[in-house]
Write a structure and sequence with these properties.
The protein is mainly alpha-helical. It has six helices and two strands; from the N terminus they run ααααααββ. The protein has a two-stranded antiparallel ribbon. A hairpin with a 5-residue loop joins β1 and β2. It is elongated, with a radius of gyration of 33 Å. The termini are far apart.
Length: about 150
Amino acid sequence: MMMPANYSVIAENEMTYVNGGANFIDAIGAVTAPIWDLTNVKAFSTNVVTLIGNAFIGDTIHNTLGYVFSGNATKAGLGTSFGKVVGADKFKAGQIGDGIAQILGSAAAIYNLGRTEVKNTAGDVKLFKSEPSAKYTFKDANGNVMGSIW
């Protein structure tokens, strides 16, 4: 069989190199595939959700339990407060993306509450605040403090 001078027979599996090789995503996958497995992907995903939840946890607690137990809760106020958690105020303002982010952030915060224990601060409370006082105080004849030893 006669072939032109610039023609060569190449197997199909070698055509990748002729057509330009791998793209960026393929190259990253080739490097990380041996390193990352399903455990790493799960840990990464959980950590991303945790970081997002940590950013939203304060507002979520304040607008739900904080409002209910504030002593000033009303039926109308509860709806407004809960609306902040689910992004209703953002949707009303036309901020669709922010509203969706609020929903996802609040869901991540609730997920965090379900997967870990919260810090118990009851032991950190001091019943009687003590002010530091001097061990010895020196006064003059008029009762004015001249100095102290702590």
